Q: What sequence folds into this?
């Protein structure tokens, strides 16, 4: 699996004139990578994600998934939003199965075996999410964290090639947020997922990611592509290591100074790629 973004640009029209949200931007995401997008508010992170999902049209540029052009929404991309986008009239199980039931209605030629396999997958995902006893519950009966678990299970039910997540834990309390981060790491290992993740939380980005793309202030552009030196079996103990603290601090420095014109960005970027002992 390879996601390719080529010269992607977004300009919004307004009464006061055009607003460039994202300057021509290019990057790739390989199979099994967990790539976080961080940057100041309004820098085009979520806009990029929505264009990749096919939910918003790019002004210019191209998006390719395994060499095929992306021109709209598709089952090859799963999306998880910050708000709990569950259907209140459907149960947890029905919400999870909604996407592939919709696909099945569009393509009724699918075999019984394939349909049963997808149904079985929805049960397995909910069990993996710790929701085995809540298959027949309705969203109103769930906590915020449980609702987001259902949303993630629904996004994964169709076995997408890439999972797109737009600040999925932003509305959760601190304890639930940490629990969801641990769950996402577990899923990443279990499902061998490829993830593109938008967050304002630098610590969350460092903890979850294999790479971090840092966006400038509007109009957004990528100013740094930072590898994260922790393996897939990481746990919360890495948050107290000197390497974790160093990377978090220097990313924060870069973000805090991005909107200033009198700082030495190159010097900060050099620090980001230096090993901890230097």
A:
């Amino acid at each position: 699996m390879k996601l390719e973004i080529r010269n992607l640009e977004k300009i919004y029209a307004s009464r006061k004139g055009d607003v460039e949200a994202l300057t021509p931007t290019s990057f790739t995401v390989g199979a099994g990578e967990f790539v976080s997008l961080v940057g100041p508010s309004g820098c085009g992170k979520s806009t990029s994600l929505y264009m990749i999902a096919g939910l918003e049209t790019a002004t210019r540029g191209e998006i390719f998934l395994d060499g095929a052009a992306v021109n709209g929404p598709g089952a090859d991309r799963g999306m998880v939003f910050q708000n709990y986008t569950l259907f209140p009239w459907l149960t947890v199980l029905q919400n999870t199965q909604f996407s592939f039931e919709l696909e099945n209605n569009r393509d009724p030629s699918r075999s019984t075996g394939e349909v049963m396999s997808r149904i079985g997958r929805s049960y397995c995902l909910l069990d993996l999410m710790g929701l085995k006893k809540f298959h027949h519950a309705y969203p109103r009966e769930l906590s915020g964290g449980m609702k987001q678990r259902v949303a993630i299970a629904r996004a994964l039910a169709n076995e997408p090639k890439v999972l797109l997540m737009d600040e999925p834990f932003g509305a959760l309390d601190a304890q639930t947020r940490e629990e969801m981060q641990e769950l996402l790491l577990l899923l990443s290992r279990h499902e061998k997922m490829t993830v593109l993740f938008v967050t304002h939380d630098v610590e969350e980005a460092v903890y979850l990611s294999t790479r971090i793309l840092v966006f400038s202030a509007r109009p957004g552009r990528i100013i740094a592509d930072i590898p994260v030196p922790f393996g897939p079996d990481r746990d919360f103990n890495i948050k107290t290591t000197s390497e974790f603290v160093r990377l978090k601090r220097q990313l924060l420095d870069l973000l805090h100074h991005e909107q200033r014109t009198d700082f030495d960005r190159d010097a900060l970027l050099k620090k980001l790629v230096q090993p901890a002992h230097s």
User: Anything to note?
Assistant: The chain has a mean pLDDT of 88.
